[in-house]
Specification:
With about 100 residues, this protein is mostly helical. It has one domain. It is built from seven helices and two strands. The chain has a two-stranded parallel sheet. Helix 3 packs parallel to helix 6.
Length: about 100
């Protein structure tokens, strides 16, 4: 989805949108660090699909192993420490929505 489409729908996309393909990363700590290292300063909208493990996600998509790997990677204390060390601020849609409404 392009920035312009997001803007027309009322979302502020930020400086860039990065679509993370599960098959590109098969998320692990090193891949996540490379992802963060590759993004220049500013507001970046990362589109990925982390999912908790379970029968539900396995039933609806063949990409369940990648999504679970993404989920588990972003819960790792080492990645959280790396993000904090580099001053990266993770925000969600609620924060963006509030900024749009103000």
């Amino acid at each position: 989805m392009s920035d312009r489409v997001l803007e027309k729908l009322g979302f502020a996309p930020g400086d860039r949108v990065v679509l993370v393909h599960a098959d590109d990363l098969g998320m692990c700590h090193a891949a996540a660090q490379r992802l963060f290292d590759s993004v220049p300063p500013g507001t970046t909208h990362l589109l990925l699909h982390p999912s908790a493990p379970g029968h539900d996600i396995e039933a609806i998509t063949d990409s369940a192993p990648y999504r679970v790997a993404d989920y588990e990677t972003f819960l790792r204390p080492e990645l959280k420490a790396y993000i904090a060390e580099w001053g990266i601020h993770l925000i969600g849609y609620r924060c963006l929505r509030d900024l749009i409404r103000s």
